[in-house]
Every structure is written in C-alpha cells, then in structure tokens.
C-alpha cells in the first residue's frame, strides 16, 4: 500500500511538471541566452549592431581631436583672404585640431610643392585655396593614395572624392551687373577690371559675357587687371591713367570690378580725381571693403559676396566630415549675398560680424554642419 501511494504521488508530480511546461511554452517565455524564431530573433540581431554603431560613432568623435590640418593658399592678398584664413582656423580649433598655413605667393609650382609636402609630412587633412588643376592634381591624388582627405576652394578640379567649394561666382557677377544696368538706365560706358587664370574669375567672366549680350547699349571702353603683391595699388595707378584718358564727366558711367582688391584701387583713384559721377560695383566683402562701402564719398556703392569667414568655416566642416568617415558631395556652391550702401546704417560704422543685422542671410552659415558637430564648441 505504501509503495502504491509513493507511485501515485510520483505520477502526480510528473503530471504537474508536464502541464507547467506546456503552459510556459504556450506563453512564449524563454530563458536567458535562448533564441526564438520570428520577431524576437530580429530584435536580438538589430539591437547589438545599433549599440556598436553608437560606440563607434563616439570613438570617431574622440578621434577628431588633435588632427593636423594643412591649408595651402595660392595667395594671401588683402583682408578678404585674411578673414577667410581666420574662418578656417576658427573651425579647425573648434574641432581641437592644429592648423598650418602654407602660402605660395602666386607661384603655382610652389603650391604643388606645398601639397606634396603636406602629404609627406603626413598631415591628417588638406585644404587648398585657389590654384590650377596642373598645380594641384598630382599632389591631391597622392594624398588620396595615402588616405588623406582633401577639400578645395575656388579651383577648377574634377577629381572624384575631392570636394570643391565655390562662391556662386556667376550669381555674384549677375547681381552686381544687373544693379549697374538698372542704375545706368541700360546704357553708358563702363570699365571692366578682371584677370584671367583663376577659377572664380573665369566663372564671373561667363556672366559678364551674357551681360554684354543682354545690354548692347552698355559699352566696354576699357578693360584691365592683374594679380600681384600690391593689386589694389597697381589698380589705382592704372585707373588714374584711364581717368586721364577719359577726362570728361559722362565719358565713364561705371566700373565693374571682379575682385575687391580691384574695387578698392579703382575707388581710391576715382575719389582722388573728384569724379563722383562714376560708380563702382564690386565682388567680395571684408571689413576694409565695408568701410569703403559705407563711406558716402566713396564711389563703391554695391557688391556681392559670401562672408569670407563663412567660406573658411564651411570648407573646414566638409574636411571634418571626411575625417569622420562620411561621404561628401564633390561640388558645394555657397550662396552669395548682395550688399549696397542703402542697406547700411548712416550713423555708425559696422563690421562684417555685425552686417547680418542689416543684410539678411549674411554670415552664420550652417552649410556643412552635422548633428554630431554640436559636441564641439567654438572657443
């Protein structure tokens, strides 16, 4: 009888365990480490990579600090170039990097040498300012072979993987030329100051050629221009000679200057000659340019430009995108802003840092900014 009772109890326990197991299976409960088919397996597989991606992302952000960046400039003439370089430096420092600037002083072969030097010295990234394909291509391809990212500004480059920034040069020329035509009533005699051999100048010339077709009654009576270590002074001397060649009021309606250094030189010559009937329309903007634009006695009355500091900042951002491991577009066009004297205050002098208060869209560009960059603060 005792044996029978023990057997009955054992069968009862086994039956209870079996029922409990069936209930557990029906509810879909699994123990740690167990995998199941369907949605639960999918969740397990997608969660781990997401966490790994987040960890890798944090590692990349940390790795950006301490990068050595080379800026290779064809020239560093005038306040525009200086403010551009300041913008690059500001952004590189924001990311905790170290900037070294190489200036080729318009020597194309020296510029090529500097790019090669940056590669040989194992800089982490290279920025270029102006230059020609002949001067830059070989060194840039060598940089790519060494996994050194490159971002160029104002160069006619077409190298896959190299991001090239430009200012929207045709648009800048159109903005100033259309204002000139409107102020002149669609007719008159003008002087063009321009120089070949630079990517932005070639694009601006394209717009100028279209302007000539559109306004046949606006005649070009003189054209000159050269880039040198003293561009503004050389332009001033040449403009003085042209004023003597056309001494009467009405001989010259306006001057179109395709570079701010040209506009500065021409404006000084016109002002000193007392030819206040001649107006100057320029391209580019710096603090020095803005002072002349605000001066009611200056013939320079309008310009189109991108904040030079913004150009430097945006260029550096695209380089750091590459250093972060992101793919960037090969061509980036910066949107220019039209600035004329009538937009500016008459009771105080303003700087380019304050210009955005009076001209919508000036400075503070967020182009090239990424969400992860918010981790880096400006000094």
Secondary structure: elements and pairs:
Blueprint: H1 2-27, H2 39-63, E1 68-73, H3 78-94, E2 98-103, H4 108-120, E3 125-129, H5 133-145, E4 150-153, E5 163-166, H6 169-184, E6 188-193, H7 199-214, E7 218-224, H8 231-245, E8 254-257, H9 260-272, E9 279-283, H10 287-294, E10 300-305, H11 308-324, E11 331-333, E12 337-340
Parallel strand pairs: 1-2, 1-3, 3-4, 4-5, 5-11, 6-7, 6-8, 8-9, 9-10
Antiparallel strand pairs: 10-12
GO molecular function: carbohydrate binding
GO cellular component, one term: outer membrane-bounded periplasmic space
InterPro entries: Bact_Solute-Bind_Prot2, Peripla_BP_I, SBP_2_dom
What this model shows, in words?
The N and C termini lie far apart (91 Å). It contains 11 helices and 12 strands. The protein folds into 2 domains: 143 residues, Rossmann fold; 137 residues, Response regulator (Rossmann fold, 3-Layer(aba) Sandwich), CATH 3.40.50.2300. Helix 3 runs parallel beside helix 11 and helix 8 crosses helix 9. The N terminus is likely disordered. The radius of gyration is 32 Å and the shape is globular. The strands form 2 sheets. A 6-stranded parallel sheet has the order 2-1-3-4-5-11, sandwiched between helices. A 6-stranded mixed sheet has the order 7-6-8-9-10-12, with helices on both faces. It is an alpha/beta fold and 379 residues long. Strand 3, helix 5 and strand 4 form a beta-alpha-beta unit.
